[in-house]
């Protein structure tokens, strides 16, 4: 009965209940304004904000590297950067965007903020571990910035051997150490989410009532915990070969360079799903909230997240079709890669069915959701083309591949990240932003993105190889289009930074549930109190329990 | 107290197995050396699983879940071998 006595008197704002101070009970943002109250916090919501700052900084650094590349590619001669400089620019762009933006983006910010709120818990299972994972992330980020200052690394984000182990003059070992450290942050976060979802669900929050975002984060966490150690060990093996001459990947010493690709992609292909699964979860939430209908085929959408996580482990060989892998293995990997499209397709069809006859409002979160769906479908279908052995041989290592994965990673994940930001921003800061600016930014992002990356499909199909900055003059037109699109995209990405920051001070108070959505996170005040819920909620209804409006009922 | 003693015993067993690995690497060459090294590594990881990861105190479901990591390692080995053996 202790828990009952700790509940505050609802009418009395000075009754602290579980909180240590009055202000903590009012909002997590008011619970201390000192630096210490942020840097030593164990509150999942504050740690989410710390992550948000860190990954925004890395997004800008990675974006600056991309801007340099696009500027250099305006002319076919490679006037801006040296050959070496160009290699270093795309390597740092890849390393930062993959490990310091995309992988932590949605799980570590919105996952951290929302998972406890969505399942009716007061925090993650291991709050200290959560803070530790942020510090490890920042340490790894510091190493990466040091690599950047020390001159960079030129191997590409994939660190392929034998270039990385024998020939590269860059800071390969340091960069590998940075990624190795970042891996521990991923593992700790994944572990924390798994235990939280298993152990801290509130009464009535059964597995078939979990929000689809939580299902997606759970599936992502499984991959984080199972795949990341393989990457860590692989990077240690590279360092061991470079520093001590151990024969792992060097054929002269009895090693095999292809073994590196097997080990690297055993992690890195599932890592693609680490990046996109949380985005799929976000979009399920955005679609349900926009359509104001229960998600069509809830169990299939939830199960498809787990299916993607599992099947995603069996497809890595499609990155090695032209590397000298056995033809039979390639055929098997090609077939399995096509299979992973099935659960992805289930999601897209079910979103469409959810939207069918929905009461759709064109608010910014939904526009970002639609951006995601459109771009993810193009990225996914071109992924099917690349999974086919014969087609892949033609377009391997061309801009076609670059365009494909940017449609998934940027068009998909980054759009979903912005969708999540616009959907849950009123919950996070307690204030609303100007919707019209949100809509404009979403439209500019969609247009800028397509202008940047669609020409790259054409470039790739015509034979423009990736990772070259000196190219045949007939490709220049498409490169100029792409660079123009990148400028628009860059500006569009900066827009939310301005109006969301503005809204923190000048936005109208949001109220508990500004979108009139279902879900436990909308039952607490905006911003939530430090302990999330004054009373642990009890769930007695299915998820997305929107009242279905019949024809003629609404004006 | 008994738990601490058993941890110390396991630690000694691990050190002995490490010594066995080093000895085997000097005495055995080729596939035999590899087989013995892998066998010892298997034994060592088993001890760590069973005692240090407390699986001896857990119920059936947790033990099966802990084998998940092994199952995933099997996926890696199986598909890498599928490539190497059919090249």
Automatic annotation (TrEMBL), chain A:
InterPro entries xrefs: Cyt_c_oxase-like_su1_dom, Cyt_c_oxase-like_su1_sf, Cyt_C_Oxase_1, Cyt_c_Oxase_su1_BS
Could you list the residue ranges that cross the membrane?
A: 48-69, 89-110, 131-153, 173-195, 215-244, 264-288, 300-321, 327-346, 366-391, 403-424, 436-458, 478-500
State the species of origin. Xaviernesmea oryzae
- What is the protein's given name? Cytochrome c oxidase subunit 1
Q: Which residues form the Cytochrome oxidase subunit I profile domain?
A: 38-540
Q: Which residues form a coiled coil?
A: none
Q: What is the similarity comment for this entry? A: Belongs to the heme-copper respiratory oxidase family.
Q: Which GO terms describe its molecular function?
A: cytochrome-c oxidase activity; heme binding
Q: What is the membrane topology here? A: Multi-pass membrane protein
One GO cellular component assignment for this chain's record is:
membrane
The protein's superkingdom reads Bacteria
> Which keywords appear in this protein's UniProt record, sorted alphabetically?
Electron transport, Heme, Iron, Membrane, Metal-binding, Respiratory chain, Transmembrane, Transmembrane helix, Transport
PROSITE patterns for this protein = COX1, COX1_CUB
Q: Where is this region: Disordered?
A: 1-24
| Alphabetical GO biological process terms | aerobic respiration; electron transport coupled proton transport; respiratory electron transport chain
PANTHER family tied to this protein: CYTOCHROME C OXIDASE SUBUNIT 1
The keyword Transmembrane helix appears for this protein: yes
Give the taxonomic lineage as stored in the record: Bacteria, Pseudomonadati, Pseudomonadota, Alphaproteobacteria, Hyphomicrobiales
Pfam families named in the record: COX1
From TrEMBL, chain B:
UniProt name for this protein: Cytochrome c oxidase subunit 4
Name the principal localization, coarsely classed.
membrane
Q: InterPro entries of this UniProt entry?
A: Caa3_sub_IV, Cyt_c_oxidase_su4_prok
Looking at the UniProt entry, the stretches that span the membrane are: 34-52, 64-85
Respond yes or no to whether keyword Membrane is given for this record.
Answer: yes
How does the entry describe its membrane topology? Multi-pass membrane protein
Q: Which organism is it from?
A: Xaviernesmea oryzae
Per the database entry, which stretches of residues form a coiled coil? none
> Per its UniProt entry, which superkingdom is the organism in?
Bacteria
Gene Ontology CC entries for this record? plasma membrane
Q: Which UniProt keywords apply?
A: Cell membrane, Membrane, Transmembrane, Transmembrane helix
Per UniProt, subcellular location reads as: Cell membrane
């Amino acid at each position: 009965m202790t828990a009952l006595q700790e509940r505050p008197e609802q009418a009395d704002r000075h009754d602290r209940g579980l909180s240590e101070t009055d202000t903590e009970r009012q909002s997590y943002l008011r619970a201390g304004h000192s630096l210490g109250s942020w840097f030593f916090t164990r509150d999942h919501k504050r740690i989410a904000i710390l992550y948000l700052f860190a990954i925004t900084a890395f997004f800008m650094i990675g974006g600056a590297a991309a801007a340099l590349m696009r500027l250099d590619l305006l002319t076919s001669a490679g006037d801006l950067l040296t050959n070496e400089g160009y290699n270093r620019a795309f390597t740092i762009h890849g390393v930062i965007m993959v490990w310091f933006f995309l992988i932590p983006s949605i799980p570590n910010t919105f996952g951290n903020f929302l998972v406890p709120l969505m399942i009716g818990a007061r925090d993650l299972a291991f709050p200290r571990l959560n803070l530790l994972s942020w510090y490890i992330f920042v340490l790894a980020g510091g190493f990466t910035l040091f690599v950047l200052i020390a001159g960079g690394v030129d191997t590409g984000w994939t660190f392929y051997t034998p270039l990385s182990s024998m020939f590269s003059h860059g800071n390969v070992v340091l960069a590998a150490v940075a990624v190795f450290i970042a891996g521990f942050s991923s593992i700790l976060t994944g572990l924390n989410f798994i235990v939280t979802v298993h152990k801290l669900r509130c009464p009535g929050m059964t597995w078939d009532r979990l929000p689809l975002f939580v299902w997606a984060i759970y599936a992502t966490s499984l991959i984080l915990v199972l795949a990341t150690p393989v990457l860590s060990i692989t990077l240690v093996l590279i360092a061991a070969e470079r520093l001590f001459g151990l024969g792992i990947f060097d054929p002269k010493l009895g090693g095999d360079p292809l073994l590196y690709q097997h080990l690297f992609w055993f992690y890195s292909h599932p890592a693609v799903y680490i990046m996109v699964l949380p985005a799929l979860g976000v979009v399920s939430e955005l679609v349900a909230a926009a359509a104001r209908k229960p998600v069509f085929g809830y169990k299939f959408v939830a199960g498809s997240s787990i299916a993607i996580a599992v099947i995603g482990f069996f497809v890595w060989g499609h990155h090695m079709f032209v590397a000298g892998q056995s033809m039979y293995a390639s055929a098997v990997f090609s077939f399995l890669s096509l299979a992973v499209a099935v659960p992805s397709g289930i999601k897209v069809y079910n979103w469409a069915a959810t939207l069918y006859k929905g009461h759709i409002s064109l608010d910014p979160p939904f526009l970002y959701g639609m951006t995601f769906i459109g771009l993810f479908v193009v990225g996914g279908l071109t992924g099917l083309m690349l999974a086919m052995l014969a087609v892949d041989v033609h377009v391997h290592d061309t801009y076609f591949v670059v365009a494909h994965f940017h449609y998934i990673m940027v068009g998909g994940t980054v759009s979903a990240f912005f969708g999540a930001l616009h959907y849950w921003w009123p919950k996070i800061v307690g204030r609303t932003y100007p919707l019209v600016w949100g809509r404009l930014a979403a439209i500019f992002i969609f247009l800028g993105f397509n202008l940047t990356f669609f020409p790259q499909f054409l470039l790739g199909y015509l034979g423009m190889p990736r990772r070259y900055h000196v190219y045949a003059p007939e490709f220049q037109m498409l490169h100029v289009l792409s660079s123009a699109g990148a400028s628009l995209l860059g500006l569009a990405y900066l827009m939310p930074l301005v109006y969301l920051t503005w809204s923190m001070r000048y936005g109208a108070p949001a109220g508990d549930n500004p979108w009139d959505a279902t879900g436990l996170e909308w039952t607490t005040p905006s911003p939530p109190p430090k302990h999330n819920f004054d009373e642990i909620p009890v769930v007695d209804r299915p998820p997305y329990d929107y009242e279905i409006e019949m024809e003629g009922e609404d004006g | 107290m008994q738990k601490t003693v058993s941890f110390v015993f396991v630690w000694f067993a691990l050190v002995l197995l490490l010594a066995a690995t080093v000895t085997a690497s000097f005495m055995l060459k080729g596939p035999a050396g590899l087989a013995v090294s892998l066998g010892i590594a298997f034994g060592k990881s088993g001890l760590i699983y069973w005692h240090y990861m407390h699986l001896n105190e857990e119920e059936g479901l947790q033990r099966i879940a802990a084998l998940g990591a092994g199952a995933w390692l099997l996926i890696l080995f199986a598909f890498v071998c599928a490539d190497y053996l059919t090249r």
